[in-house]
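User: I'll paste a sequence; please echo it back and then give the predicted structure.

Assistant: Echoing your sequence first, then the prediction.
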Amino acid sequence: MSAPAARREAVGVTMERHGLSQRHACRIVGMSRSGYRAPPRPDRNAWLRVRLKELAEARTRFGAPRLYVLLRREGHVINHKRVTRIYRQEGLSLRRKRRKKRISHLRVVRPAPTRVNQQWSMDFVMDSLWNGRRFRALTIVDDFSRESPAIEVDRSLSGLRVSRVLDRLADERGLPEVITVDNGPEFQSRVLDQWAYDHGVRLQFIRPGKPVENAYIESFNGRFREECLNELVFMNMADARNKTERWRQDYNTRRPHSSLDGMTPAEFAQHHRVMQNSAGTNLSLVHRTG
């Protein structure tokens, strides 16, 4: 509902409930009598309200900035402040839990990756089927492009199973130089250690109790938990694999990422490859002309 319409309705309710005159009710609400008597103008944001509600229903964990990006992707030329205003008027704002303040501490600042497939992160996430049976998900993310090469779901995931997933990814897209992991038994297993040695990949272990040192995968797991695991019901393991894979594809190819300037991870990776190829071509021309 637009602001003038809301004020007009407030005037009518005030007059009806308290038996006040139109002049008195308008003064209380803060609306002129001519504005109250004038016929309501058609709401030029009616289509935007409907579309925002549709997008918010489909993307229950998206706030106004990401919904604005989706609207722009659909071809709507619209100001972000207008989207935010309508978003709040329709009561679509998300409720965020405030983090408790903690004592600040020194952090180990690791060098950020500079290209695709340079550094990955891995971790495990727990969830359950509709009948309460637990399962695990191995999540993998490219630290530079934020792409998720794979999410492996099963009741048990050993170090051997992790190495097989990585072998599959090696055939599909190659392997990184470094994989950041925590100190879980699967990542410290002899099988994975031998696999890393054979493939020339360095396993970079974070310090115990310092998940902030594996921030890329922790951020990804938060989105995975909010937008997939908490939103969907899994009937069996096959259903869990299918739904998590659909979410992964959507995350890589359709979901705008705020740290990537509104691009999806796949778009950002493709853009970076094009820029790299263009820079290499220009450098080659400089050498030839020189």
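The chain has a mean pLDDT of 87. DSSP finds eleven helices and five strands in the chain.
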